[in-house]
Design goal:
InterPro entries: YdbS-like_PH. The protein is α+β, with helices and mostly antiparallel strands and 175 residues long. It has five helices and seven strands; from the N terminus they run H-E-H-H-E-E-E-E-H-E-E-H. A hairpin with a 5-residue loop joins strand 3 and strand 4.
Length: 175
């Protein structure tokens, strides 16, 4: 099973990091569950701002303005988190794994598939309910570009696909 068909192309922000002879196999964005905490803060802040503005509406009108400005700052932080999530990708090619992060400052971490000596995935209770997991990668080298990749969608499928690439069978005629 392929999560990205060979005819599909990676997003333009990812394509520039692929080598000419590489074939992308998997390209996934982190699971939207990574946004649960920012959503909770924005909604909680909205409730707190509404309650506080009703409590202090008669005593100090300028304080109400500050309350709502503080909530707008919280909302701007949320928009930043969503924008950052929208450009973060985990890409697996036929030769390496890439983790691209960052909106203004782009960070690309890479690990060759040949260097991966051990890989496991973990799923928390919320991860099992919402459908995400975390990969833990070990390599032969001392310094690793990345070790843990969290909030990955379809973790079982990704795990099986990556393991079949890292540890190919002797009969690889189906590729």
């Amino acid at each position: 099973m392929r999560l990205v068909t060979p005819g599909d192309s990676a997003p333009a922000s990812i394509h520039r990091y692929l080598l000419p002879h590489e074939q992308q196999v998997i390209t996934v964005r982190r699971h939207p569950a990574v946004l649960m905490t920012p959503i909770a803060f924005v909604l909680g802040g909205l409730v707190v701002a509404g309650v506080l503005s009703n409590v202090v509406v008669g005593s100090n009108g300028s304080l109400v303005n500050w309350i709502w400005w503080a909530w707008l700052v919280l909302l701007a932080w949320f928009v930043w988190k969503v924008a950052t999530w929208s450009v973060d990708y985990f890409v697996i090619t036929n030769q390496r794994m890439l983790l691209t992060t960052g909106l203004l400052t782009r960070k690309v971490a890479m690990m060759p598939l040949a260097k991966v000596t051990d890989m496991s995935f973990q799923r928390s209770m919320s991860g099992r309910m919402l459908g995400y997991g975390e990969f833990v990668l070990e390599s032969a080298g001392q310094d690793q570009a990345f070790r843990v990749v969290s909030y990955l969608p379809y973790p079982e499928q990704l795990y099986l696909e990556v393991c079949s690439m890292i540890f190919p069978t002797s009969d690889s005629s189906d590729d």
